[in-house]
Amino acid sequence: MGIINRIGVIGAGTMGSGIAQACAVSGIPAVMIDVSDDATGRGTKTIALSLDRLVKKEKLTAEARDAALANVSGSTDYAALVTADLVVEAATENLELKLKVLRQIAGIVAQNILIASNTSSISITALAAVVSNPARFLGMHFFNPVPMMALVELIRGLETDETTLESAKSFVEKLGKTPVMVVNRLLCPMLNEAVFALQEGIASAEDIDNAMKLGCNHPIGPLALADMIGLDVLLAVMNVFYDDFNDPKYRPAPLLKEMVAAGRLGRKSGRGFYAY
């Protein structure tokens, strides 16, 4: 464990391609692994379009864009991970899928290579259990959109080594981002409480969001943020917290459950607490 000069990312979707882009722009080559060439191709195209927008906004030079694109590659073969110093699992938030992916990663990379999960809620200790040398495993939770968000939540498991954590912190700082040790434990219950307030008729969605924007200087209100994250994602996180901690303060709001059941997932479905 030491300096991270090359990374592998499992998943070429929104989070995976975002992580790869952040690395590539910072001069760190990244290979995205996904189930098909079409999937990795879409990920690479997403990165190219994002970089083009930055060039148009004069936040990136054309030369820097070209250099970043040269740092991105895609593959369907986990063997492409053998040269990586860090592998970040960014698969769908499903425990069995993540465990399967992590077993595949651990079967390819050397014992001293850092492995991280981009999970937003699943126990890091539980995920680490299927990785040989779990001391080199941690949670590395990026926020969407990854290239724009300056925060990365690092989560240690029961066996995560201090050197693993320090290497991860150095890597995050190399990306120009700030590592912190807690986000979702604070954020998600706040969003859930905002749903309770709406459900109980205490205030409108607009008033709840304005209260936090104007009264607490938040750039976006909790309900609008929940829509951006995805109400299904928020519900999944709250369910994990509720099950794992066995604490009623993490009970998902019934309205949140109803909206997910109705397919009102937020921005990605066109309707959540607001219409898009």
Please describe what this structure looks like.
- This protein is of the alpha/beta class and 276 residues long.
- Helix content is 47%, strand content 13%.
- It is globular and about 55 Å long.
Quaternary organization: single chain
Walk across the major sheet and give the strand order: 3-2-1-4-5-6-7-8
Query: Overall 3D geometry?
Result: globular
Query: Could you tell me the radius of gyration in angstroms?
Result: 19 Å
Task: Report the uncertain regions.
Answer: none
Question: How many E-type strands?
Answer: 8
Biggest sheet features = 8 strands, mixed
The N- and C-terminal alpha carbons lie at a distance of 45 Å
Strand content: 5-15%
Secondary structure topology:
Elements lengths: L6 E4 L3 H12 L4 E4 L3 H20 L5 H9 L1 E4 L10 E4 L5 H12 L7 E4 L6 H5 L8 E6 L8 E6 L5 H13 L3 E3 L3 H16 L5 H12 L5 H8 L1 H15 L8 H8 L15
Parallel strand pairs: 1-2, 1-4, 2-3, 4-5, 5-6, 7-8
Antiparallel strand pairs: 6-7
Helix pairs in contact: 1-2, 1-3, 2-3, 7-9, 7-10
